[in-house]
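Quick check before the chapter quiz. The format below is the same one you will see on the exam, so make sure you can read both the input and the output lines.
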Amino acid sequence: MRNAPRMLWNVIFALGSVGATGLLTLLVIALMLIASICVAMLVIAFAPAAGIGVAVAICVFGARGAMTASRLLSGSKRNRRQVLAMLGGLGAVLVPTLFTVFPHWSNWSVPAKLLVVGAWALAALLVVLGSVRMGVFLEHLDSAQRRRLLQGRERAEEVLIAALLAPGNTGLGSGYAAQVFLPSSSGRRMMPHYDPDGWGPEEGWVVGREPRSVTAEAWDTNLYSQVRGSEVADGTRGLTKSQQERYKTLTGVAATPIQDARGRQIGVLAFLAETADASLIGQRDFIRKHIALAEVLAHVLVNVGGIVVATD
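Here is the expected output.
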C-alpha cells in the first residue's frame, strides 16, 4: 500500500502522455464496454433462458466494437468525427431506453437527473452536428464532382470541334475560316464560341433587327444565308466602320443554323473566305457539306458540351 501513491501518479502520467486522442480512445473503449455489459445484463435479467453464452457474445461484440473505434480514432479527423457521431447516437438511444426498462431510476435526485439530461443532450448534439457535417461534406463533394464533369465536358467539346472544323477535315478545301456562334444569355446577340482565327467580333452580332450580318440572318430566319463580293464588307449589312475595315479582305461568308433533331436552333456555323475561292459558296455541294458539318456539330454541343436547347 505504500507504493499506491506512486502507482496512481504513474497512471496519471501515462494518461497525460497519450494526449487528447489517447484519452478519447480510452473513453470510447470504456463507454462501449459498459454499454455492452449493460445490454448483457438486460439479456440475463429478462431472458434467463438465453443463458450466459449470449451475454458473453454481446460483451465480445462490444469489445470488438471498442477496438474498431480505437483504430478509427487513431486515424484521420473525419474518422474521429464518425466515432463521436456514433457514440452520440448510442447515448441518445441508450439513455431513454435504460430509464424505460428501469423505471425506478426516475427516483434519482434532481442533480443526478440533471446530469443525465445533460449527457443525453450532449449525445443528441453530437448526432445533429455529425449529420450536419456529413451533409455539408456530401454537398461539397457533389459540387466538386460537378465542376470536374463540366471541365471534362468543356475540354472534350473543344477537342472535338477543333478536329471537326480543321481546314483539312471539313471537305470544303483550304482557305475557309470556321466560326461557331451561340446566343448570349439575353438572346440579343450571337457570341463567338469557336473562333480560332480571331475574326470575331468579340462583342458578337446583334440579332432581331435590320440590317443584319449573315450570321444574324441565319439565326433570325433559321435558314441558310450567304453573301459574296463587295457586300461582305460594305455598309449593306449594318457593319460599323471598324468592322468594314476589318472584313474588307473577305470575299465571301456563308452561315447555317445549327439545329437539333427537332429543328430547334442551337447556334450558327459560319465559314469565311479570304484566300479560298469564294465562288464555291452557294454551290450545292458546298451547302450540303456545310449543313452536314452543322448537324454533327449539334451532336457535339448537346451530347458532349451539355448545351440545353430551349423548348418551344
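If your answer matched, good. The mean pLDDT is 75.
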